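WARN no homologs supplied; continuing
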Amino acid sequence: MDTPGVFLNLAIALGVGMLVGLQREKSGSELAGVRTFPLITMLGAMLVVVSQRLFPAEADAAAWPTAVVLAAGLIAMALVVLTGNLIRPGVLHPGAVHDREPHGLTTEVAILVMFVVGAMIGAGMRAEGVAIGAGTAVLLYLKPSLRRFTSALSDDDVRAIMQFAAISLIVLPVVPDRAIGPFNAINPYKLWLMVVLVTGVSLSGYVALRIFGPRAGLMLGGLLGGLVSSTATTVSYARLARTSPALTHSCAAAIAIACAVMGARMMVLVWLVARERAGELLPGLGAFLLALLLPALVGAAFSRMSRHTDDAEPDAQKQTRNPTELKTALVFAVIYALVLVLMTSGKQSLGNAGMFVIAALSGVADMDAITLSSAGLVSRGELSVSVAVRAILIAAVVNTLFKLAMAWSIGGSRLGRQIALYFAAPLAVGALVVAGMFPLAG
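OK structure emitted
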């Protein structure tokens, strides 16, 4: 590496180290602060530079001396950290300091991480080193927020997170990646990847709903509930409207918000699965989302809730299942695989009409399966954009009508009429796109 490149790497190491050191200095660390951390990262970078100069890259075994030098530097840094801790007040002479908070290992571990970050930058891995260093600084800075977050988690929330880790980090890597089943329509790896994707999106709303709980209020409850399951949210708020008629208008607005979140979730899934065709797929779906969102926002803005309404909370948590439970994940996997096979076979044997019937039937039970399967077929070039958009919107229209029927039957005619007003625009837009009268279906 030329001299300007070396100086650039050292400057980057200095800056990243100063970022972490600033946070440690602000937090009152006695071991290392705004001066020590930059020195540590520069030391890591300098060791790499020196070892590369002493052992040029032309040598076949050049990597081994560099590794030995870095290992020796890391051991030396660990010894420095140990020495720094031993000479701190209250360590060698415990009676010298009283009422001191228990000392953790955060700064010590950060020192070792930043030494390696400096070595990465010295080796030319600038982007990676900067990303890790900045991430370390952010993680250290978020300590109070992370503590509040973890204290708000219940045992059920932690179990949900662990279950998601199991299905994504343990199950997914061992699933075979090859086409099997009827019409070779199913790839087990991609099938489970879609399960991970959907449960991950749902998990974020599930945990947030658990954390906020009764403090969420109606509108935020509708937002978070829609992220997990707009159908369960509709049932919850419909029951609240029946038991508390004064909250009917607010419950209707919350249901509309939940359904708008369903529309946004639908677009996000399409973008993730068929990113290269998103510019063709999203306009028609976006028109449906906009028709859902605008009435919901207007209803939320003009909802005149009484003082006790802010604390009203339906039994959304009882209605919402943990989306990471293996049973729930397997049920979705079966539904998704079935829809995928039916759509593939329907395309070959029945044409577009058969696919539209399958989409309508799928929309009653689940929007994620038809959305993912349609977008996946478009991504593989097995389905046109126009047919995919129409299939997804047919399912969305059927799903919206199904929620309207549930709200009307559970919450009463007053709630049903208000929900019908919220859903009139999206149903009309969906019908226009499906009929080909709205030029957004590709």
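Confidence is low (pLDDT under 50) at residues 96-101, 305-311.
OK
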